[in-house]
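debug: dumping io for the single-chain case to check the tokenizer round-trip. Nothing else runs in this session.
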Amino acid sequence: MAGAVQKLNPFSASGSTTAKGKPNRLVVEKGPSAVSIETTRRVIAYVFRFIVFCASLAVLWFAAQWLWSYIKASPSFAVAEVRVEGLHRLKRGEVMQAAHLAFGDNIFDKSLEDLELQIENHPWIAEANIRRRLPDTYLFEIREHEPAALLGLDTLYLVATDGTVFKELAPNDPMDLPVITGVDSKRFKEERDYRASILLGILAMLEEYREAGLLRKETLSEIHVHNDDALTLYIGDDATQVKLGHPPYRAKILRLRKILSKLDEKNVRAAYVLLDYLRRDDRAVVRLRD
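debug: decoded output
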């Protein structure tokens, strides 16, 4: 019938149309129950992944513990060889004793850092570098202190070439070294700058004395430090007194070598040589022995 209003079924598969002929879309909203189910599924998935992750960590931890226990107990990793390089005064057994190390110990019982610290506690060892060569070998690289002089304070101490006072003098230690005397013991122990300047200055002078070729000809038995830090040397078998004064020392030592050479040509010896001549740097005062 013309003009009749057609009723559409809102549940029809073809949907409905608007006045302009555009179809209406059916919007279906999720209810609270659907959202809750989705959230629950996600939480369960996260929990499951976390459990798997924790289980994997636990398996790895137990595997690592088992492997470490095996390594610690296995005779394959027992120390069978210790190679030591750089020894001059010490023996390998002394180094192992300083490290509290014995053959048969497990090579992983101690960390390399702990071994190095223990070895460097030995008074003659300046530095230690240790490596492992698996399964059963240690490689030790040792640098010993090189004694250059004796320091007389309350007792005699050994002084290394780098200025380190590293131990008291013992019966088996080298004694054919120049003795440094006259140092203010209290000041030396309390003032670090004074300690460093005195020792490094003396060691530099010793090196220049050696480079000048005097050490082979004239034994340097004593280096006396005066209150103003000037130096007096006692050289030769007759302990000739050489007043060296203050640095720089190189020119003075070369002048001393010329003086001693001339005296040897004349077959005479000096009672003392004054090199710290205040009026002229290129002069020296020499008094001959009677």
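debug: round-trip ok. The chain has seven helices and 14 strands.
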